[in-house]
Amino acid sequence: MRIEERRAQVAARYAARDLPCWPAHRPPMDSPRDEEYSRVTDPARYRIVHERARVWTEVLAQLPGVRAESMPPAPLDPDRHLSFDRGTRLTSDHEGTLPLLLLERDAPTEEGTLAVLHLAAVEPTVELAMHPDCGCDACDSGSADLLEAIDERVRHVVAGPLVILQNPRWQAQWHPDGSSSGGSGRGPDHDKVMDLCRRLAAGEDVRLPRKTRAFVGRSWLG
């Protein structure tokens, strides 16, 4: 079964849960107002990110050779003293696949508790994305965009190939649909890093920058 069919299953199961749904706060080309940057209209509605991850867990666990295991709280970023509260580790027995970690965090705010989902590969510190990345009204583009972003990150791991380079000062990701790189320190040239990623995805033996780890994931779907 293709990833698009699994994604359709997720959408159908999720829709049956009757969860919050909301539009973007403004048209795409309009700039946020100053007060929107410090306002979270309804933090409780962001529970949809945890629910979406739980539905993905249900659907992926039905794949042959896939196992879902609960994870106890653990650090996400020791430097920021940031930890997740609940987590699920999904693994496939297909050769060359990367484990997918769906990590839930309950972030306190002045308006209430904000649900945050961290998606990681292999271990919690190898983060792929965080949703919502902020939660304030200025950054809120609506529930549909939020769910789409989660689905895309899951797809990158499950459908493959996916290459992640992690360095103490920077991180890079590559998949057939796109790429990204960045970090707290100055890293190698983006184009050169992406070339390394493409060569790793092709199975080549490459020399990595100093102190850099590489994670290469193949498709869970055979």
Average pLDDT across residues? 93
Low-confidence stretches: none
Radius of gyration: 18 Å
Q: How are the strands ordered across the major sheet?
A: 1-4-5-6-7
Fraction of residues in H or I helices: 10-25%
Observed structural traits:
single chain; 222 residues; alpha+beta; five-stranded antiparallel sheet; four-stranded antiparallel sheet; 4 helices; 25% helix; 29% strand; globular
Structural summary, described in words:
The protein starts with a helix and ends in a 5-residue tail after the last strand. Helix 1 packs across helix 2 (48-60) and helix 2 (48-60) packs parallel to helix 3 (143-159). The strands form 3 sheets. Strands 1-4-5-6-7 form a 5-stranded antiparallel β-sheet, with helices on one face. Strands 10-9-8-11 form a 4-stranded antiparallel β-sheet. It has 222 residues and is of the alpha+beta class. The longest helix is centred in the C-terminal third of the chain and has 17 residues, at 143-159. The model has no long low-confidence stretch (mean pLDDT 93). The protein is globular and about 50 Å long. The protein contains 4 helices and 11 strands.
What's the quick description here?
The chain is an alpha+beta fold and 222 residues long. 25% of the residues lie in helices and 29% in strands.
Record the SSE blueprint:
Blueprint: H1 3-15, H2 48-60, E1 66-71, E2 74-77, E3 82-84, E4 86-92, E5 100-109, E6 112-121, E7 127-131, H3 143-159, E8 162-166, E9 171-175, E10 178-182, H4 190-201, E11 213-217
Antiparallel strand pairs: 1-4, 2-3, 4-5, 5-6, 6-7, 8-9, 8-11, 9-10
